[in-house]
Amino acid sequence: MAIRDILIWPDPRLMKLSKPVELQDGKPPDDVKTLIKDMFLTMYDAEGIGLAAPQLGVLQRVVVLDIRAYEREQADGKVEVPSGETPIALINPVFSEKSGKLEWEEGCLSVPGETGMVTRAAKCRVDYVDVDGLPQFIEAEGLKAVALQHECDHLEGKLFVDYLSPLKKGVIKRKMLRLIERNADEAAE
Ligand code: QAP
Ligand code: CO
Questions:
Q1: Looking at the domain assignment, is residue 4 inside a domain?
Q2: Of 27, 64, 130, 177, which is most buried with the most CB atoms under 10 A?
Q3: Domain region containing 109
Q4: Count of structural domains, the chain
Q5: Which residue among 151, 181, 186, 189 is the active-site one?
Q6: Distance CA 123, CA 143 (A)
């Protein structure tokens, strides 16, 4: 088990379609179980609330989510109490839109330090297989619905920046390219 490096957009691997996990005797293989553990470690280390496998360069349909950290941030009063159970690992998630529209200021561990307003479905359903190979589904709203849509998008090679204006996207891209360059320089020192 290990913390892995998170790819920074526009790394081309973030724009690829991820493949479904092939279950063996109805169970996820050991490398996928290790991947899920590493995804949680990496997400917590980076102080994120969601992470998709392609962000670690693994093009498989696996997502982890733990929105409790976000709940704590909001603990001063209002906002919302996200529904349902997290932390959660989703294998082969299939998203279906339920209803409504919800605007949220999103960020992404692959686009560090940047945010943008994205409109998503306010309620959604996600069918998936859990770490034990059991078919499950979640019906979510609010932050949890936003997070599930954001993470499922990663499996299609899509990021929140793809919903922004070309101008804003371009500004963020230049910043990220500079960051990638700086990281490479530091690694070479
Ligand atoms: C996806 O995002 C998400 O820029 C998860 O400097 C986004 O965990 C779900 C993060 C919005 C729901 C709503 C981003 C941490 C974490 C940063 C994240 C940063 C440090 C983002
Ligand atoms: Co993301």
A1: no
A2: 64
A3: 12-188
A4: 1
A5: 151
A6: 10
